[in-house]
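Recap quiz, item 2
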Amino acid sequence: MALTREQLAQRVAQEFKDGYYVNLGIGIPTLAANYVPEGVQVMLQSENGLLGMGQFPLEEEVDADLINAGKQTVTMVTGASIFSSAESFGMIRGGHVDLTVLGAFEVDCQGSIASYMIPGKLIKGMGGAMDLVAGADNIIVTMTHASKTGQSKLLAECTLPLTGKGCIKRVLTDLALLDIEDGKFILRERAPGVTVEEIAKLTEGELVIPDNVPEMAV
Amino acid sequence: MALTREQLAQRVAQEFKDGYYVNLGIGIPTLAANYVPEGVQVMLQSENGLLGMGQFPLEEEVDADLINAGKQTVTMVTGASIFSSAESFGMIRGGHVDLTVLGAFEVDCQGSIASYMIPGKLIKGMGGAMDLVAGADNIIVTMTHASKTGQSKLLAECTLPLTGKGCIKRVLTDLALLDIEDGKFILRERAPGVTVEEIAKLTEGELVIPDNVPEMAV
Amino acid sequence: MAGFDKVVNSYEEALDGLEDNMTVIAGGFGLCGIPENLIKEIKRKGTTGLTIASNNAGVDGKGLGLLLEEKQIKKMIASYVGENALFMEQLLSGELEVELTPQGTLAEKMRAGGAGIPAFFTATGYGTPVGEDKEVREYNGRHYILEEALQGDFTIAKAWKADRFGNLMFRKTARNFNPMAITAGKIAVVEVEEIVEVGTLDPDEIHLPGIYVNRLIQGTFVKDIEQRTVRQA
Amino acid sequence: MAGFDKVVNSYEEALDGLEDNMTVIAGGFGLCGIPENLIKEIKRKGTTGLTIASNNAGVDGKGLGLLLEEKQIKKMIASYVGENALFMEQLLSGELEVELTPQGTLAEKMRAGGAGIPAFFTATGYGTPVGEDKEVREYNGRHYILEEALQGDFTIAKAWKADRFGNLMFRKTARNFNPMAITAGKIAVVEVEEIVEVGTLDPDEIHLPGIYVNRLIQGTFVKDIEQRTVRQA
């Protein structure tokens, strides 16, 4: 069975280590904050200038001056700090954020990612995504493995305009967890009940299948 | 008569305009702060991270955490602000300081300045001087016109290692105030009692002498 | 209060000298920390042909979206221009030009513009459409592209509190692009919620020194919220 | 207090892993805001062959001057190295190497090192010995040279107040190089006068977020003054 959004978020959260500063993109990545493992503390960086993002505010706590990168009203945790956008991206570009999780349209086995623009459709812009993929060493891309019509999104080469080139090393899809090494996808884990064959069929880029591909614990 | 240190400082202070942010180098430039004209407010920038430097502290006010770029204990004026060295030099390099006054060993008629190093003698370093001359549009160099042995310090070309190339437009010496334009020194004012001929004799670089060269009001 | 008093008394005076076809840098992220009254004054003035550098272009009818209504913007330099139907319409019709710039690069370009750094290398955008036609250089095995500084004829920005010398404090994430936007404007105009007497602000707690501020005005703010998200108690 | 608690309990622990021939970035300007106890710990450890980037090299017997006594420094990257006879002696005898770097360039090199900017252009030093062998480029009729970022294996720095997460506040001009020095160190060690509980510092008033700090220690400070200048009442 393909992972649900909640299961994807759970699996992402298993990558959290105690003391990690983490930047979570909009959507599934953000959900991961609900599944931080027992005994682990993470601090969320919001690229609009907040380290230590908390949960949504109570109605009476809503503050127009306190939002996240998705423009949602948020709160601050104890120990939070505020800074300018230049400082925020200095932090990101300089590699000080331990883990970045973001979505994508396509990833290829060279580690390139396309996530911000579909030519011919409306242009929205890359926001902070290009800085995030260029600045982080440790990135997890979360996405569906294939389109609704069965087209693989794990490609030999991205077809859409790139957000970053050769910067992605780990992809979590609804079917599998894969690393990217030496121009190949390495299958690390399967979603529960999903076979290696199903994954291989929906992976266009070169796929390496180790002898043992365990099921994810979600 | 050649100007005294106090007179040099007085003449420098005549360049202060109301609302100017000013960086004053060590020595005579610093003295100029004592001669701010009536009705004029200036705010002193100290490149170690202070805008709004005040006078020396009273004995009981001395604070090791509050010094100027000359490592002297100082105070802050009302309205002062503190910032990092990166911010301070952003301010300087970005041209936000209205006037910079500093000393020199030599200046030439191309607007180059040598002020930080005499080869063969001890090396001390340029400190912030290279940033100051590169960042400011409006710089006054204060120096003696010639060495004690009568060697001109206003040269056709500096002989010492440069602090900055082609960046100086105004020089105040103990004998004269000169502008630098199109590769020439232009004599603007004479020290009281000093003749144009005396100045010409001690100026090695090409000197333009306008019809009327008034005496300084000091 | 003489030379360093930056306070002006009307929005008209605040934007005196702003002319057609100028480049304006605007602070704010989404609708958070935007100079909302200065934007309204530009609308009132009717200045056109503007190039505006701002992370976002407002939303329909709010923030910079107001300037789209009368087609006052010729070009937008921004990282994200979604949530704005009028923007898309003018973009597709060719009435509006957009230069999409990664958010961190945009922030750094403003900071560089204010700090006398004409250009810098960044890995952001290498190998992407942003890096096309830009110089590439390798440092320690990674590729970087050369990005140039950004400066504006005017900056319009918003801070929380100021003293009359223009020393500024920002509040929470309304800080965002405002500090470096202010440093990068030849004439930096800042509107604030409160102007306090000089000497009231602790020198150690000033977020941006008044040296960068040319004009200061006190305003009242609506502070629209784009995504009001709440949790239940 | 788990993952984000940066407090260590001894200076030995604070500098654990510092080895011979490493590059160390040090905060401070003159003797103001220097990590005086961390310097003493390096002296005690006897680490040698160090390359140290710091605006100054201390004075005889104080600050980084202490490390000259046992010849622990191989190379100094600094803007001003006057006021130090032992320094000059070792420099002239060839035991010590110095890379004179303009003060603003040094600050910006550290900031760039922390912010993922491998190189930047600056007008500072163009046409001078500092600009020799560096790439020159013209922007808007002015000449600029390309300067590269600086990073350290360790940073040693001093702040005034911190919470246990390493969120920092500096005091007056003891701020100076400390913030960017901290961002540029692979392992950033900060000593402070006071450690307060997390939540005590206003998020808007934190000068440098704890994300940059790896180890934090509370010390007591002598705070030597180089030029005690006073006025009469």
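Residues 119 and 147 of chain D are 5 Å apart (CA to CA).
Chain D has a mean pLDDT of 96.
End of item.
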